[in-house]
């Protein structure tokens, strides 16, 4: 593992600021309580569908939740860009950065391949026990017949065409992370080739901007209980009894499978990343809870960086490089959920998928994983060509899209845990526990 370890040149650098007084150990517990209470309150509001008071409360909560999510997302761009630039510009050589990138990509490719193979092998066995009444399937299809499907270019050629931004400022305004990551990496490599005086000034500026954004992030995260309550209450009010209807089997299979994968990744971080279990969760739980409440990997990024820095004391190159690359490029949860979605839709429409088609599904997930957008329900943009290739009706996507507000949360939880597990493995540097 020492081959990719980055060391800074002997020049002035800005250390991390002393850790500010934070919300303490109560915050993760408060967020969990808010998550449960929010869902329960939302379902309760659902029982008065025509009440103007209930409608007004839901609208107000939607505004509060959206404002909190926007407050998190506004920190992503001004935090991730200086982190990446400083990580590359502070490296001893471009080869060291390349080695770190190769290790990151190899770990995620191994994760995606393993998850895809296991899901493709187990899903047919699980759905072989699912027998749906014809009347139930007809009613289920009719209930989502008019559901609009996500649109977008998920092709490999489109991914490469959009990889280099024509306008980095426009990419930042649109929240398009991957092109911004490429721009930041190119800027960092250019700084690496500059004189020592220029390098020192660029790194000092990036560290200053980073420190200010981290202070802002701590303030925003203290509002997590309120934001999580508002977001989950709106979800509960919109879904109501759908979570306990005809799709309960599908929801259970997807959610349990993703939770098992998440636990496996936690074990990876503890064993290979050499973190104690309490220390792992102290660093990962804020990002995991943000993932559960927002369904957005990008919205969870500030909490990931905060946990990796404050609780795990990972090296700056891992924080700035690995997490940024991971959250923008890799979505291992799709390797588990895609085969399950395909088998469920096949069962719903009475279509038999051959072993060759199931193998094609697993291979497709591995190859197309980097093109999955880091947005809620982003995987549904990628899955449409797969359905066409194996002869499944695209209308089946709408069936699973109806309960995506539930399953997306577990997908994002796994993706965020995977990002932090890889960071822990690549940054396995033992440090004394903070007092």
CATH topology grouping:
Proton glutamate symport protein
Distance between the termini: 28 Å
What is the arithmetic mean of pLDDT?
77
The stretches of 5 or more residues where confidence is low (pLDDT under 50) are: 1-24, 143-147, 429-435
**Residues in helix, %:** over 70%
The count of domains is 1
* Top CATH class: Mainly Alpha
Rg is: 22 Å
Q: Which structural category do the helix and sheet elements fall into? A: mainly alpha
Q: Please report the total strand number as a whole number.
A: 0
Describe the sheet with the most strands.
none
Q: Can I get a quick summary?
A:
72% of the residues lie in helices and 0% in strands.
Structure description:
By secondary structure, the chain is an all-alpha fold. It has one domain: Sodium:dicarboxylate symporter (Proton glutamate symport protein), CATH 1.10.3860.10. 72% of the residues lie in helices and 0% in strands. It is built from 19 helices and no strands. The N terminus and C terminus are likely disordered.
């Amino acid at each position: 593992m020492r081959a990719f370890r980055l060391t800074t040149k002997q020049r002035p650098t800005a250390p991390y600021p002393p850790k500010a007084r934070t919300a303490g150990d109560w915050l993760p517990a408060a967020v969990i309580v808010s998550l449960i209470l929010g869902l329960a309150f939302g379902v309760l509001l659902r029982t008065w569908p025509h009440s103007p008071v209930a409608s007004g409360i839901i609208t107000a909560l939607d505004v509060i939740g959206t404002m909190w999510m926007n407050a998190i997302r506004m920190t992503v761009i001004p935090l991730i860009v200086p982190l990446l630039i400083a990580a590359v510009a502070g490296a001893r050589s471009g080869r060291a950065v390349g080695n770190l990138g190769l290790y990151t990509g190899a770990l995620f490719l191994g994760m995606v391949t393993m998850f895809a193979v296991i899901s493709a092998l187990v899903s047919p066995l699980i759905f072989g026990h699912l027998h749906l009444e014809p009347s139930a399937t007809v009613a289920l299809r009719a209930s989502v017949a008019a559901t609009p499907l996500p649109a977008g270019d998920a092709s490999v050629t489109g991914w490469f065409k959009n990889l280099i931004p024509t306008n980095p400022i426009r990419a930042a305004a649109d929240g398009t992370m991957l092109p911004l990551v490429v721009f930041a990496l190119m800027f960092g490599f250019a700084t690496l080739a500059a004189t020592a005086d220029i390098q020192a000034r660029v790194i000092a500026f990036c560290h200053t901007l980073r420190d200010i954004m981290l202070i802002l992030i701590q303030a925003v995260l203290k509002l997590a209980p309120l934001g999580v309550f508002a977001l989950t209450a709106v979800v509960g009010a919109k879904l109501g009894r759908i979570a306990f209807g005809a799709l309960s089997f599908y929801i259970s299979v997807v959610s349990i499978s993703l939770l098992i994968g998440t636990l496996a990744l936690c074990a990876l971080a503890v064993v290979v990343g050499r973190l104690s279990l309490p220390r792992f969760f102290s660093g990962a739980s804020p990002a995991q809870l943000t993932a559960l409440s927002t369904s957005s990997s990008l919205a969870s990024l500030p909490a990931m960086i905060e946990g990796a820095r404050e609780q795990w004391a990972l090296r700056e190159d891992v924080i700035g490089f690995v997490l940024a690359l991971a959250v923008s490029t890799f979505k291992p949860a799709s390797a588990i959920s895609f085969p399950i979605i395909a088998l469920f839709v096949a069962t719903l429409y009475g279509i038999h998928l051959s072993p060759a088609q199931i193998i094609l599904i697993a291979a497709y997930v591995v190859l197309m994983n980097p093109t999955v957008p880091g947005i809620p329900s982003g995987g549904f943009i990628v899955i449409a060509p797969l359905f066409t290739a194996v002869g499944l009706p695209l209308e089946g996507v709408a069936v699973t899209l109806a309960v995506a507000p539930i399953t997306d949360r577990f997908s994002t939880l796994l993706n965020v845990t995977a990002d932090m597990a890889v960071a822990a493995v690549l940054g396995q540097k033992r440090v004394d526990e903070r007092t």
